[in-house]
């Protein structure tokens, strides 16, 4: 096992423990593992002694950690002579670098793969932004990786994986098979492994307090080893270097979980916003109609979002500028996912109402804006190409907010991504059934208060 970005040797220590567990007490095998099967490289001279000490403290009597640059040809040849078959690495992240000359994360991955034997496996945890690269040096490196090696799997990791450290980056784990060119016919496994069962507690950090990790880990491993697609957790897909290498791009939204409760919650949240901001005098649970309507989701059809809406940005208005106009009746739409996205009301607006707005900075939160409004940065607009009223709008916001699992700080809900997605809707003659959507919302509790 080889780690070209050893740090304090966390991967090497963990690997040593796992390998020794499989020896079943055979001391000669344990000794061979410690002497001949664990190798690392650490560049920083102040970290190197910590790595060696960590290995020694955990029972490694002959630490094979090299102090130097993993890109040095002499060091590369030294590692190659050991014929490693497994590479683990967590390279320095570009977000923490200050110089343009700093090495890209993918360069470290290529370096690790270069040192491995043919068919060896490289496991790298790197920023999600690497997987999403569509231009520049990172895209070139994606192309180089697939021209030399096979991308077997990518796991999207929990957003707060590094909560207990200073790293605030969304990450993924990539698994490559060394020295086998990626085939266009090869399926890559993508895991949406966001929920690892860990929870946060004040002053104690993120930990498996509820003892859920073992079961979750076993399920993840079963899905990966067998390349099994599972709704909400995994998908297999043929990709190329220009593709986004993450599950969020390819997973299908589970529409079957929709029921009256989902849509009623949307109405309650919207009416709570209206009442809290004195935009309505009362709210009741009364229905607009007493007709009972079945959603019949299995008959819905996928429709391209760009055929339903003009997807565009909004003009950014700074709060300081709004304060000069003073308080008023026009909402100020922000990227917050509460209060219908509204950060205040001012005597100024730049955008026409009766449209949907989407936060493109964080969660992809969608809300309906009935009135003319102004907006902060990263607020996108969905301007309907059809006659939309508040009933249809609230049906659509429920559907669009199901897509939030696709987005995070690393993969934002951009105009480009929205223009590429399709959503499932009630349809008639291959066209959206707007009347059905309106009638359905009117059949729900609280609809009369709209």
Tag the structure with descriptive keywords.
2 domains, Rossmann fold, four-stranded antiparallel beta sheet, 450 residues, six-stranded mixed beta sheet, Adenine-n6-DNA-methyltransferase TaqI, Chain A, domain 2, 30% helix, alpha/beta
Commentary on this structure:
With 450 residues, the protein is an alpha/beta fold. It folds into two domains: 2-249, Vaccinia Virus protein VP39 (Rossmann fold, 3-Layer(aba) Sandwich); 255-449, Adenine-n6-DNA-methyltransferase TaqI, Chain A, domain 2 (Alpha-Beta Complex). It has 14 helices and 22 strands. The protein has helices spanning 10-21, 27-36, 48-57, 73-81, 105-115, 128-132, 136-148, 213-225, 260-276, 305-308, 319-325, 390-400, 415-420, 434-442; strands at residues 2-3, 39-42, 65-67, 86-89, 121-127, 150-156, 171-177, 187-192, 199-201, 205-207, 234-238, 301-304, 309-313, 327-333, 342-346, 355-359, 366-369, 374-375, 379-384, 422-425, 427-428, 431-432. It has a six-stranded mixed beta sheet, sandwiched between helices. The chain has a four-stranded antiparallel beta sheet with strand order 13-19-16-17. Strand 21 and strand 22 (431-432) form a beta hairpin. The protein is elongated and about 80 Å long.
What fraction of the residues are assigned to beta strands by DSSP? 15-25%
- What CATH calls the topology of the largest domain is Rossmann fold
What structural class do helix, strand and pairing data support?
alpha/beta
Distance between the termini: 63 Å
Name of the top-level CATH class of the largest domain: Alpha Beta
| CATH architecture grouping of the largest domain | 3-Layer(aba) Sandwich
CATH superfamily of the largest domain: Vaccinia Virus protein VP39
Q: How many strands, what sense, and barrel or not for the largest sheet?
A: 6 strands, mixed
Q: How does the overall form come out from the CA principal axes?
A: elongated
């Amino acid at each position: 096992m080889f780690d070209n970005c050893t740090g304090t040797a966390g991967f090497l220590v963990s690997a040593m423990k796992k390998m020794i567990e499989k020896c079943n007490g055979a001391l000669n095998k344990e000794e061979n593992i410690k002497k001949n099967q664990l190798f690392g490289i650490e560049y920083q001279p102040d970290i190197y002694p910590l790595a060696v000490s960590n290995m020694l403290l955990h029972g490694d009597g002959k630490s094979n950690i090299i102090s130097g640059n993993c890109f040095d040809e002499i060091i590369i040849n030294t590692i190659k002579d050991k014929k490693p078959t497994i590479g683990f690495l967590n390279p320095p992240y570009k977000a923490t670098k200050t110089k343009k000359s700093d090495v890209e994360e993918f360069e470290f991955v290529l370096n690790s793969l270069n040192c491995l034997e043919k068919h060896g496996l490289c496991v790298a945890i790197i920023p999600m932004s690497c997987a999403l690269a569509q231009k520049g040096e990172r895209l070139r490196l994606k192309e180089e990786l697939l021209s030399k090696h096979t991308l077997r799997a990518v796991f999207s990791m929990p957003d707060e994986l590094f909560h207990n450290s200073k790293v605030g980056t969304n990450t993924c784990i990539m698994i490559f098979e060394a020295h086998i060119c990626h085939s266009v016919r090869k399926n890559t496994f993508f895991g949406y492994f966001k929920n690892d069962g860990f929870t946060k507690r004040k002053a104690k950090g993120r930990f498996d307090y509820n003892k859920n990790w073992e079961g979750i880990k076993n399920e993840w491993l079963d899905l990966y080893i067998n390349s099994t697609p599972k709704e909400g957790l995994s998908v297999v897909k043929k990709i190329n270097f220009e593709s986004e290498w993450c599950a969020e791009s390819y997973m299908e939204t589970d529409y079957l979980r929709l029921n009256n409760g989902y849509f009623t919650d949307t109405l309650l949240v919207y009416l709570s916003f209206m009442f809290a901001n004195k935009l309505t005098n009362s709210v009741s649970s009364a229905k607009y109609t007493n007709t009972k309507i079945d959603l019949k989701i299995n008959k819905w059809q996928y429709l391209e979002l760009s055929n339903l809406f003009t997807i565009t940005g909004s003009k950014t208005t700074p709060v300081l500028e709004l304060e000069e106009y003073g308080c008023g009746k026009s909402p100020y739409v922000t990227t917050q996912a509460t209060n219908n996205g509204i950060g205040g009301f001012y005597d100024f607006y730049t955008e026409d109402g009766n449209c949907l707005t989407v936060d493109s900075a964080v969660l992809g939160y969608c809300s309906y804006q009935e009135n003319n409004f102004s907006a902060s940065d990263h607020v996108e607009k969905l301007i309907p190409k059809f006659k939309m009223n508040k009933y249809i709008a609230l049906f659509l916001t429920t559907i669009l907010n199901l897509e939030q699992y696709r987005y995070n700080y690393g993969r934002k809900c951009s105009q480009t991504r929205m223009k590429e997605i399709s959503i499932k809707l009630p349809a008639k003659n291959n066209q959206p059934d707007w009347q059905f959507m309106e009638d359905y919302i009117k059949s729900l509790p609280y609809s009369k208060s709209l």
